[in-house]
Hints:
seven-stranded mixed β-sheet; single chain; 27% helix; globular; CATH 2.40.50.100; four-stranded antiparallel β-sheet
Amino acid sequence: MSIEVKVPTLGESVSEATIGTWLKKPGEAVALDEPIASLETDKVAVDVPSPAAGVMGALLVKEGDTVNVGALLTTIEDGVPAAGNEPVAPREEAPRAPASDTIAPKAAEGEDGAAVLSPAVRRAVLEHGIDPSSVKGTGKDGRLTKEDVLAAAQSKQASPAPAVSAPAPAAPAAPAAAPVAGRNEERVRMTRLRQTIAKRLKSAQETAALLTTFNDVDMSAVMAARDKYKDVFEKKHGVKLGFMSFFAKASCLALKDIPSVNAQIQGEEIVYFDYVDISVAVSAPNGLVVPVVRDADKLSFAGIEKAIGDFGKKAREGTLTMADMAGGTFTISNGGVFGGLMSTPIINPPQSAVLGLHRIEDRPVVRNGEIVIRPMMYIALSYDHRLIDGREAVTALKTIKEAIEDPTRLLIDM
């Protein structure tokens, strides 16, 4: 008896995915719930588990193919693996696009032909264009680790790729320019996630009436509070006290006061939310992702810091789920962690506003008629002018500024 393996439900509004990597080969033994393939969606990578224990059947789609939810991928057969794990011949397929359209490198093969790459390793392989079969694994049983892939990528960058001579043209043609030593090119197809990021950001520019307003914030009070309580906070809650929780709580104040900043345009209607779900921009190996801190307005500082910390860990490991990133009414993006001084962030559709944070640096400012040095940060609010008026945007950003400069406001809802 054979059991069909189909593309699982991928989440709300997600109807298709790309075959990233086959983790098992035809003829190999598989256990119940063992991952047999990795799918790349518009937002995350999803492992396909085996629905039963048995033997891997023929692969009905190739790595790099786009498949719809419910499409048949392979089958799990009864029995034991054939000697030597001889692969089952795949069925005949219609002619396909050239191999250059495939975006995922093939899985590394061990001595027994098996290859099992962890999600973090697959992310690194795709990101750096590394052939896993060319890298010697240092992990358990010789498996690849993320560090192995990163080391291979560094070695690849340090060593110029050998020039490949082109075959002689069939007809007389102008001679191609000779390659210049030390000037190499590498072409890597965009991952599905990167393609989606590109489309969404461009769509935001073309659809929304984007505008950005700026302000600067004196970080002295927040930094003093953080220095005073960070050790006790971490000891009690098991998580570090960062600046993001202050800005998240300050944003909640502003969004409650200015509801349009926490609203969305849906068709010919404006939808106002009585809750605040904050999307937090997190850097992942294969692109920027925005997991959602739900009900941020009801969470404590510790709750917000724990949620953000968990998302950061899952992003690095490549284990974020569709549920982690669904929804969101407002976004905070912290370019300051990378040293950015100022930027104009782009909204995350269908949201109507995004807060951009930047690096903190000492600057001269005037206080009580005197020039003093203060730790200052530029903050930016990009918004959809179709929904949010300039007065509302400026007021919301000013509310955030005042709450950060006087954190007591966060306690008394001012």
